Backbone:
């Protein structure tokens, strides 16, 4: 009998280091391209839904609440945590989707997730420092103090467009471009290259398009461009909702089954870019919707998509056909997104805001707090410690 491929934890530290990634992202790989072992583990996981997702909420919500109001005040929390988490998200995507949890994958469950989470936190701080230097100058107080005072280069909100652009570019490279052509490289180098390219795109947007009117003595650099920080943030929020919808909620449908990689990549980019542009102008110009409202609504949809597509993955599959499942998951995402954005906005308007806004806090709660918590729980901790059977046995199975 042929020996089954070893589990990630059974491979040596350096073997995982030099491995190459699957041809398609695991989340968008059609079922017929997975190995029987992968599909068996997936069936065991999906059979535990929706109870598995409900139990996961007990792991996710405390982390989200800590990031949302952990400093005792909503405004202080969004001013400090929003930039730090935003800069950490590209590193989280690299470890979860490019390195496939390396180096933590060489350790026991629980410890592996903890090590990876600490690496994400450390990377977020380092990247936040780099972002602060780009928009101004290095200033520790401007990073960790919610009210740093005059002369300190505060990250919020000046550096947010830079971090958001890097994260959006990272998702585009990971999900829409399917990691190509970087997946020809060993996973460590491929992930670092993807992170570097994402930051390169973010720097281009910053220096060519971002308009940052900094007051003298603020510690920030004046940057002249065609788009305000609000314009960039809203556009990226809409783009993120398309990325989540097509590639996480619908798992790459209708593109993932196309035999040609380059056809999938080209059509995927056209779909996301065209959809983003169309929705942005329809809402902001035709409908006259205020940009902060678009930001809150898009963030609510994206976080709902992460909850439905990752935390409650496959919860409807056993009772519906695939086409029916796609309709139901999209409807559930839209309804949950509306509930999240409307309820959080209503709650946020009870607070007094001076530096931040209610809509900015809603965006932070949905994407940075809830989104980060869901990705950590599902893609990094692999739902540990809920059920050992929920850990994907071999992410390289889709090679």
Residues:
């Amino acid at each position: 009998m042929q020996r089954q491929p070893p589990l990630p934890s059974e491979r040596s530290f350096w073997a995982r280091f030099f491995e190459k990634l699957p041809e398609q992202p695991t989340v968008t790989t059609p079922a017929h391209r997975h190995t029987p072992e992968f599909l068996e583990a997936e069936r065991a996981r999906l059979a535990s839904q929706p109870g598995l997702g409900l139990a996961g909420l007990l792991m996710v919500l405390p982390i989200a609440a800590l990031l949302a109001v952990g400093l005792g005040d909503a405004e202080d929390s969004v001013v400090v945590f929003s930039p730090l988490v935003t800069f950490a998200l590209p590193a989280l995507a690299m470890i979860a989707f490019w390195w496939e949890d390396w180096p933590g994958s060489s350790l026991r469950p629980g410890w592996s997730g903890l090590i990876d989470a600490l690496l994400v936190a450390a990377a977020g701080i380092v990247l936040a420092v780099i972002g602060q230097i780009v928009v101004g100058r290095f200033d520790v107080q401007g990073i960790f103090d919610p009210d740093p005072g005059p002369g300190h280069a505060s990250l919020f909100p000046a550096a947010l467009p830079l971090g958001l652009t890097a994260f959006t570019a990272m998702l585009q490279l990971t999900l829409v471009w399917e990691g190509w052509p970087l997946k020809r490289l060993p996973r460590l180098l491929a992930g670092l290259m993807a992170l570097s390219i994402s930051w390169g795109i973010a720097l281009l947007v910053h220096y060519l398009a971002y308009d940052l009117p900094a007051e003298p003595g603020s510690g920030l650099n004046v940057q002249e461009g065609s788009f305000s920080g609000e314009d960039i943030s809203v556009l990226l929020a809409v783009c993120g909702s398309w990325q989540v919808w097509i590639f996480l909620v619908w798992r790459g449908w209708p593109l993932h089954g196309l035999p040609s990689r380059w056809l999938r990549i080209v059509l995927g980019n056209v779909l996301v870019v065209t959809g983003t542009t169309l929705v942005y102008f329809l809402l902001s110009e035709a409908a006259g919707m205020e940009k902060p409202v678009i930001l809150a609504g898009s963030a609510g949809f994206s976080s709902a998509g992460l909850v439905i597509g990752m935390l409650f993955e496959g919860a409807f599959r056993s009772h519906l056909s695939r086409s029916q499942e796609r309709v139901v998951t999209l409807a559930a995402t839209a309804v949950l997104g509306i509930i999240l954005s409307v309820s959080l906005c209503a709650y946020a308007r009870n607070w007094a805001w001076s530096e931040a806004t209610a809509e900015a806090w809603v965006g932070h709660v949905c994407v940075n707090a809830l989104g980060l918590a869901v990705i950590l729980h599902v893609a990094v901790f692999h739902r540990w410690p809920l059920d050992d059977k929920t850990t994907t046995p071999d992410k390289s199975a889709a090679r």
